[in-house]
Amino acid sequence: MSKHARARSRRPRTSAAGRAPRRVALVAAFGLVAFGAGWAYVTDGSEQGSEAAARAATDARPRAVDRAARDTRRDPMQGLTGVGEATRARIPADSRQLLLVTGESRGSSRSTATLYTRPAPGADWVRGASWPARNGAKGWSAERTYGDLTSPEGVFELTDAGGLLAPPPGTRLPYDRDPAFVASGRGVNGESLEGAFDYVVAIDFNRRAGRSPLDPVKPEGEEKGGNIWLHVDHDGPSQGCVGLPKEAMVTVLETLDPAARPVIVMGPEGF
User: Which residue ranges are recorded for the region named Disordered (predicted)?
Assistant: First the structure.
């Protein structure tokens, strides 16, 4: 037997009992490593969850568009000038066309007429064309009576039109062309009334909507008067109507649309 063989034969062998503690130590060491890795994962996941929660809280703030809408202050006048809060509240919410006639003072027969439109019900009004106008010789009254030479102040619908002349192209209001649209006599200051009723839009004050401006019926009684119209200005004050330049009447008739529920808002400044 060689020396190498004898040397190998004398090497002590490790018993199964001796190997067991080593295996336990390895398993224990592996378990500690795995536990540490798991704890690190849980800790890291918890931290990531906290960061995500923080981001979510930040993202819960109003979006830029929402903040802009919130911070936008609506015009308290809704785009109309010279009109009081009570009068604005009487304007129908679904009206999208409005003719504002503002008198220089309660007793003045001079005023300004301005067309307004808005893109949708409830939106602010957008100013359009404007013209000088004339109203009742003695100004305005919230309690008008027949013959008092005032124009009624308030908010009234515009539903019917007519005149001595044919309607301008594009007219959408019901239009009654009739030779009876001829003014008789003279104006308050003695001026001629010729051509005053070439174009007319009835103001729905003490009248039946849906009929010719010539309709004589006054539902609220004769004492209030009636036949209050928009018509062509005759270079003088009226008995209660509102006079506009002829080209303005053409524009009004071409613009007003029954689908937009047009109204006239008329009275002295600030009414």
Answer: 1-20, 46-80
Q: What residues contact residue 202 under an 8 Å CB cut-off, 6+ apart?
A: 158, 159, 160, 161, 162, 213, 228, 229, 230
10 Å CB burial of residue 269 (0-12, 13-18, 19+) is middle
Query: Using an 8 Å Cβ cutoff, are 228 and 128 in contact?
Result: no
Is residue 13 one of the residues assigned to a domain? no
Which pLDDT score is estimated for 39? 31
Give pLDDT tens digits for 45-88. 444 545 554 454 445 555 554 444 444 566 778 899 889 999 99
> pTM of the entire structure?
0.73
Q: Which residues are paired to 162 by β-bridges? A: 176, 200
22 or 188: which leads in pLDDT: 188
Q: Which domain holds residue 156?
A: 85-268
